Amino acid sequence: MKKLTILIIMIMVTIGGLFAEEAAIEDKHKTSGFAIELGYGNAFAGYGIMGEFFFHNEFLSSSIFIGAGYFPSISIDGIGETESSNGTVIGSRIYMGDNHRIVIETTYGFIGVQAAWLYTDGEECFVQEDIIGFSLSFGYQYMGPDGGIFTITIGKSIADTDYFGKLSLPTFNIGFGQKF
After folding, report:
1. Which pLDDT belongs to residue 1?
2. Side-chain half-sphere exposure of 55, counting CA atoms within 13 A
């Protein structure tokens, strides 16, 4: 009888441990920690990578991040071909929800490239300028039980450029990542 009791206790502890581990995995979106995302958009400075640190307490989830990316050269009809650019961006996010959540995102940094043929001193010249500015985006993020991340946002960027003046541009982000 004593051996049976010990065996039942061992089985219960093992099963309890499995459920505890599962609960810890399910709560990954409710913990502070580091994540890496790959994606495209202003939060990634073009095609890039983002390092993000999540802060979580019972009232608010938020994060800060830095992104670094590459914006490839593009051919613009009637204008010419731009040079590729590299850029960085810093930002923050606020989250509302658990696994499926609403995202409010602010960023400052590389937004994209603007190019045109301009006339200066009576001569025509091709001008390309990296656009640096502020962005505000809204969107959706899913963080799975294992910490897998999918994020998509849309918004508006504003920038004050040397050649093109004040710009107001649409922004878009899509990213996939992992929280550790």
Report:
1. 56
2. 9
What is the DSSP code string of 142-179? EE-TT-EEEEEEEEEEEEEETTTEEEEEEEEEEEEEEE
The dihedral through the CA atoms of 126, 130, 131, 137 has a sign that is positive
Give the pair of three-digit tokens for residue 24: 């810890």
Place of tokens 């049976």: 4
Domains and CATH numbers, the chain: 31-179 (2.40.160.20)
Rounded mean pLDDT, 166-180:
90
Q: Strand (E) positions, 44-145?
A: 46-56, 61-71, 75-76, 80-81, 85-97, 100-120, 123-143
Longest distance between any two alpha carbons in the chain, whole Å: 102
Per-residue model confidence as pLDDT tens digits over 91-105:
999 998 888 899 999
Distance set, CA 98 to CA 25, 142, 153 (Å): 13, 8, 17
Read off the pLDDT of each residue in 141-168 and give the average, rounded to a whole number.
Answer: 88
On whether the CB atoms of residues 150 and 139 are closer than 8 A, the answer is: no
- The span from the first CA to the last CA of the chain, in angstroms, equals 45
* Single-letter amino acid code for the residue at 140: Y
pTM, two decimals, is: 0.74
